[in-house]
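Page 42, continued from yesterday. The earlier attempt failed because a stray header line got pasted into the input along with the sequence. Redoing it now with the clean sequence only.
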Amino acid sequence: MKSLLNQILVMVLGALALSAHAAQRPNIIFVFTDDFGWGDLGSYGGKMVATPNLDRMAAEGVRFTQFYVASPICSPSRTGVTTGMFPARWRITSYLQDRKGNAACGQADFLDTNAPSVARLLQSSGYATAHFGKWHMGGGRDVTNAPHIKAYGFDEWASTWESPDPHPDLMATNWIWSPHDKVKRWDRTAFFVDWTLDFLKRHTNQPCYVNLWPDDTHTPFVPSPALKEKYKAGDDANSEAHFKGVLEEYDRQMGRLLDGLKQLGIATNTLVVFTGDNGPSPTYRQKRTAGLRGSKLSLYEGGTRLPLIVWWSGATPAGRVNERTVVNAVDLLPTFCRLAGAAVSPDIATKLDGEDLSTAFTGGEPKRSCAMFWEYGRNNQSFKYPAAASNRSPNVAVREGDWKLLVNADGSDAQLFDLGADVFETRNVAEANPQVTARLKQKALAWRKELP
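This time it went through. Structure tokens are written below.
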């Protein structure tokens, strides 16, 4: 009884804190890290390299242990956080590439501007909005008719090659990066942090929403010459040594972000949400997933379960670890709108797959009420899969409570895991739980069938 009363008290206090801070219209900075791993942070058990600044963020905020992205690959994952909907609803199921490759995947060339957009909703409610970093929801390669970033509700932007309007300082050649870029690859996160702090400084009389979406931790890993020497990195840009150098610098830049907010005097009214877009690749023998099965391109936990840190000085209880609330990336749109006091019209709200879990950001432990679904890999010719056979999953998945079921779209290879007892997905208990397996299999396949 005492434990229950304590939980109720925490939720009530969290709701009161939420109401108080929402009235101030907080700045929101959404840090979405490219190809990030559960084991990349010390606060999540990572041991590859020290991450003192991100660990400080966790120590001063709320760290979630059950956060999931909407897809194990970048473009659909980014679509999920932008729209609050499972990305396949908008015909984005793999990374966006050239027209021929998109057609082979059966997907669109870019995100439809008719889709909901968190930035557009916040912009319409009075927020100044900006996108700094990787876009990858249309544009680049031979897709020259992708809508401009402005069409999704952003006032300002500075993006990389995979966008309709890449910044010239990041694009000396027609590719992801070049040694001839004015801003070197190891300085990209610093470049985007500078843009973020400058944007906030120029909008002190208006609440701001900023996408800060760095891409340093996506291959190829290119550390500075000094960090390359520190980790004795050779010529292989995909090596563990190269990655360590990149991660050390990335962590340093996240420290610059937090320090910059304090120097601007806006830390107490700025919410920073830190996570990644999908699991890591390479995993370096699963070190980057801290032992979770899977990786980027996989529906096992290592491909979809990511760190989530919520830092909001004065609003989030310091050092809290939320192990109960299951959060999906599609929940961020309604959650951000609630925190910002931005209305979501009924015609949009009824389409969303996400739920408002905003009280979790101020110390509560709300329960997600609906099942979560994923899909990845509609054919064996156009979709890439993990190199490790044990990490390749069936191509449809559902999680309901602690149960997670994976199955192929043709109904084969059903795998059931009890994540409460087996987060590493080592024991397939489908045969031992036939009724649960049948129910979740039917639910997963029905969901998959309704998609475009």
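Notes: The chain has two domains: 2-362, 394-450.
Reminder to self: strip header lines before submitting.
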